[in-house]
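<amino_acid_chain>
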Amino acid sequence: MGEYANYDLVVLDLEDTLIDRSLALADAACRGVDAYLVELLGVSKEGGPLFTRQEAMAFATQHGFTKGYDLMNALLLCALHSMPQEASEDEFGAYDGREMLHLVKQKQVFKTSLGELKRSLKMQEFKRLLKSRQPGGKALRRITGLRNQFLVLAEGHILMDNFVRRLFLEAYLGDDLFFREYNQHVQFVQGEPSLNLEKTYFTAEELAHLRRKFFLAGVTSRTHTEIQYCLEHLEIAKFFSTTVAKGSTGPGVVDEEAARLTMDLGIEEAMGDADYSAKVMQAIERVRGLEESQPVARVAFAGNCTPEERGLAGLKDRYRLTLIGVVYGGDKKAQSAQKAAGADMVATDPESLFKVLNEKPKVRFDMF
């Protein structure tokens, strides 16, 4: 490297540290809700959208939704609970999946528009209901008894059974990426992918500055296809020596058959962070293999250190890893949790993370 630095390699959790997905996730959730109501249930699209991006982002922040399809699920539950008409579960509940939704649309159960529904949304009632339960997606599993709730198909991960997940992904990925991931074209949500709204917390100039100091590697919970599209769209892919994605194995190779199997079986989300430490190890070993001419001994990881299933404590001992806990917007309690999980230092905003990464080694002076 051309400049002195504290590290030879920094492994970044791309979602924790670098990529702001909030606007993109909110956009996909809003578009997904509209498509679900219009395309699957026959609501008129006049007066839409039902929710704006800003409303969805504020709702997600207030109630702790971190996953886009959980956010869409919640907004859809609120919308159907607010409908002026109520579908009969006795009449339609005996049918499965798409057939049930098709019959509801065919019989024109919901004689309303997105604009009319927006004016009658029971949002405050729904927010009070969420507030009395756990934050985020966990709260949704505890909610029962809402009007038209049986029409929200959000169970499991197989796309033909889980229409909330499918429509969210169609909106988020767009037709080209959706086809590359699932080998089928979008059916319900047209237009540019919401993914294009993702932003980076660091500018290209800042990343170039860091890259002159040390090697950069990325780990992500997303697939190789999706994250490469994202990095290239943001024009920052060139700064990373390697990126380890979901389903990655070996020296830079994606085991597509294994990744496809987890999608088909519907277990990709259930796996969670179970393979997280393996991805961090792969990132380190790949860079060491790629950059044999230069030493890669001093390694740091930057990301959320609190989830135990990530196994970062074990890696800290194995690689003498410096752990930089990252919790943007975190309060003192969140910072303490990072420290308790083994973080050597904590960054609560992109500026403080950049400062930590940019620190020069302390110079020792021998006194005679």
Q: What stands out?
A: Strands lie at 9-13, 19-20, 199-200, 215-223, 242-246, 248-249, 253-254, 299-303, 322-326, 345-347. DSSP finds 17 helices and ten strands in the chain. The radius of gyration is 23 Å. The longest strand covers residues 215-223.
